[in-house]
Amino acid sequence: MSFEKEDTVVLHDKHSEFDGEVGTITQVVETMFGDPTYTVSFDDGQEVGISEDQLDAADEDEE
């Protein structure tokens, strides 16, 4: 599933301080291999270079 700017997502990255948190995609960048990477903003900061497999769409009640 690909995501677009302004989508609300849940980050799954055990190495991130935002693991399990809901954020909003603020930027989508395509790599030279054609794969998208995402910048996700959270209440307390942002994560850059997130791959699609680290994200799930947030349920409406999580937003």
TrEMBL record:
**Superkingdom to which the source organism belongs:** Archaea
User: Which residue ranges have biased composition labelled Acidic residues?
Assistant: 53-63
| Region entry Disordered, spans | 43-63
Q: What is this protein called?
A: DUF1918 domain-containing protein
